[in-house]
Amino acid sequence: MNEKPYILCIETTTEICSVALAKGNECLAIKECNTNNSHAKNMIPFVEDVLKQAQIDKAQLNAIAISIGPGSYTGLRIGVSTAKGLAYTLEIPVIAVSTLESIAEPYIGKASHCRPMLDARRMEVFTALFDENGHEIEAANAKIIEEDTFDNELSHNMTIFCGNGAPKCKDILSKYANADIQFEPISAKNMISIAHRKFINKEFEDVAYFEPFYLKDYVAAKPNVKGLH
Fold first, then answer.
1. Which helix (H) or strand (E) holds 116?
2. What is the pTM of this model?
3. What average pLDDT does the segment 139-149 reach?
4. Cis link prior to 167 (omega < 30° from 0)?
5. 3-state secondary structure of 186
6. Would you state the pLDDT for residue 1?
7. How far apart, in whole angstroms, are the C-alpha atoms of residue 7 and residue 66?
8. How many angstroms separate the CA atoms of 22 and 217, rounded?
9. Contact call for residues 64 and 7 (beta carbons, < 8 A)
10. What is the helix, strand, coil percentage profile of the chain, to 5?
């Protein structure tokens, strides 16, 4: 087993399009932008750019890691399709990385708990809860944030709230001494250590059949155009 594999990491679950190239746990190159609806246009050029930055040929890649969700329906479809296409063409494995675990990764060990949050709508977030060792103690779920949502959680434990859903909870969380709100934009670089561990453990996906983790069913908005019913 290659202890320092070349892994291409792809993150498309929010408005940020991010691609990183890693060798083992080291980030060799990264390319990202936060322009809405740019994933389809930027994905392949970003992949080519990080390979060029690191002076690595596609044939040297050992695996593709993809942020699997939850998150944007469209972003997830684009990211997973790209990962599948590259993996199939290059005949290398795909590694699925939980988006919420990736968001929490920089903060693991810095508090008793870490709660990553992805903005959903209004006061709803996609979230999970991890302990100081990175173990998931609350599975990914959709949560409506209310005034007392975190009363029990924050009564005894310092918790870091992170991700793009955390800022909108600032007013509610500000009354708790044990709440620490952090915001670092989502990035493919935070997938690297998780993807490396999964590669060593051979935790690979079936390229033909694996799907994004949407968490909630996609509901298309009804067109609001005069004359359409």
1. strand 113-121
2. 0.90
3. 94
4. no
5. coil
6. 65
7. 10
8. 33
9. yes
10. 30, 30, 45
Burial class (CB in 10 A: 0-12, 13-18, 19+), 189: buried
Is 129 within 8 Å of 83 (Cβ atoms)?
A: no
**Digit-coded pLDDT (tens) for 51-91:** 999 999 999 999 999 999 999 999 999 999 999 999 999 99
Answer whether 171's CB lies under 8 Å from 150's CB: no
Provide the token pair at 202.
């051979």
Q: Is the pLDDT of residue 225 over 60?
A: no
Cα–Cα distance measured from residue 104 to residue 190, given in angstroms and rounded to the nearest whole number = 9
Count Cα atoms within 13 angstroms, Cβ side, for 46. 26
Confidence of residue 220 (pLDDT cuts 50, 70, 90): very low
d(CA 35, CA 17): 8
Q: How far apart are CA 124 and CA 117, in angstroms?
A: 9
* Total H helices, total E strands in the chain: 5, 10
Amino acid at 42: N
pLDDT tier at 217, thresholds 50, 70, 90: low
Residue 17, token pair as written in the block: 């399009």
User: Quick one: which of 168, 65, 156 has its CA closest to 112?
Assistant: 156
Task: Please classify residue 146 by burial: count the beta carbons closer than 10 Å to its beta carbon, then call 0-12 exposed, 13-18 middle and 19+ buried.
Answer: exposed
Residue 76: name the closest of 33, 12, 124 by CA.
12
Rounded CA separation 67/52 (Å) = 22
For residue 205, give the DSSP letter.
Answer: B
Under 8 Å between Cβ of 65 and 191: yes
